[in-house]
Design brief:
By secondary structure, the chain is mostly helical. 70% of the residues lie in helices and 2% in strands. Helix 6 (99-121) crosses helix 10.
Length: 389
């Protein structure tokens, strides 16, 4: 199959749309703690859907994984575990830097590290990236993407400046620049580990292709391994919260006893790798001895839908990656840019920017324009590399 970067960019846009949209079904979940609905959705995101689609769309899945060198399985899984830590520390980044600055710093680290480190580790960054016209165009696209992230952060900073003093204190009441930057660095680097996990899974792709899997689906067996690592981190944390908050009974009983407060949807956002930390997903408590009913079937269905939608971002990611030729590492920039583009569009649709100044809205518009331009630049760089051979 001859790669087609235009189709690849389109697949990455679909992945970005899925990533920016997955939290919408969670809004339908009622009277469950964050750790409860996040773990239920996570079973679909990281275990159920990856295995089902990989089993249906690839050949000999179990045999392929059995034939894969243990080192590849280990690193793909381990990077998935580390990626999970990135998501779980994102809330702390928001706590100490605020939403806009925190997202800009963490997203910048994630985009840069996730895109550039794989070719650097493979030792081809100088020869194949800096030493070729197409590679330089792609690097230019990465820089433009980072500029778009900065503009998105600037829009957020302007929005925060336009808040009332009371709302500012509620939003960034623990602002600490030094501590926040350290945590944001950790969060961004750990979040980029998903890209490393996919790169570590290259032997899995080669083996599944030998078994007759179509090129377009070669990345699905890798997702099974990487997402198992992410599931491990999130599972342990959610169970800890279930035990600490006394919310484990919510999986089985519709009667929810005490310790529930209404979620503040305003503070529930996607993270750099789409896994809200506990600090960002304000989860539950009513007055003690209060009993409320949770709609069990609806909660499970909404969580399953959210989890499935979350997985689809990387389903399309692996498809897009197959279309990017030898510069497939650039897929991470395309993914990050697409996530921010569609998350911003969701924010506009949900009227989150209503009432802000013309200056703030200008930053929003510029960030969208620059991020779209970055995806075009990266796609063009890949196109040049394919047509010149």
């Amino acid at each position: 199959m001859i790669p087609n970067p235009l189709i690849g960019v389109f697949f990455h846009w679909l992945g970005g749309l899925a990533s920016a949209s997955f939290y919408v079904p969670y809004r339908g979940v009622k009277n469950w703690a964050w750790e409860t609905y996040w773990l239920v959705g996570g079973f679909f995101s990281w275990i159920i859907v990856p295995w089902i689609l990989a089993f249906l769309m690839t050949r000999d899945l179990v045999s392929v994984l059995h034939e894969t060198p243990s080192s590849s399985i280990f690193w793909a899984y381990s990077f998935g575990v580390l990626w999970g830590f990135g998501g779980l520390t994102f809330g702390l980044t928001m706590r100490y830097l605020g939403m806009s600055l925190g997202m800009a710093v963490a997203l910048g680290y994630t985009a840069a590290f996730g895109t550039l480190m794989p070719p650097i580790f493979r030792g081809v960054f100088v020869s194949e990236v800096l030493g070729t016209r197409s590679g330089l165009i792609i690097i230019g696209g990465v820089v433009v993407c980072l500029l778009g992230i900065v503009l998105a952060g600037a829009a957020g900073v302007c929005k925060e400046h336009e808040m009332s003093d009371a709302r500012k204190r509620a939003t960034i009441k623990e602002f600490a620049l030094k501590k926040g930057l350290i945590i944001a660095t950790f969060c961004g680097v750990m979040s980029a580990c998903f890209a490393y996990g996919l790169a570590a899974g290259d032997p899995i792709k080669r083996i599944t292709l030998r078994h007759g899997t179509p090129t377009l689906w070669q990345g699905l067996p890798v997702l099974v391994v990487v997402l198992a690592g992410g599931f491990t981190t999130n599972f342990i944390w959610c169970v800890i919260l279930n035990l600490r908050n006394g919310t484990g009974h919510q999986y089985f009983e519709s009667a929810i006893r005490g310790r529930i407060r209404e979620r503040s949807e305003e503070h529930i956002i996607e993270t750099v790798i789409d896994a809200p930390g506990e600090e960002m997903a304000v989860a539950i408590a009513v007055a003690e001895n209060t009993v409320v009913k949770a709609p069990m079937l609806a909660n499970y269905l909404f969580s399953a839908l959210a989890g499935t939608t979350w997985y689809m971002q990387f389903f399309f990611y692996t498809m897009g990656e197959t279309q990017m030729g030898r510069y497939k590492f650039s897929s991470w920039t395309l993914h990050m840019a697409s996530v921010i583009i569609f998350a911003t569009l969701w924010g506009i649709a949900l009227k989150e920017w209503n009432g802000t100044s013309s200056k703030t809205k200008l930053f929003v518009a510029l960030s969208l324009f620059v991020l779209v331009a970055s995806t075009i630049a990266v796609g063009y760089g890949n196109y040049i590399s394919i047509t010149s051979h």
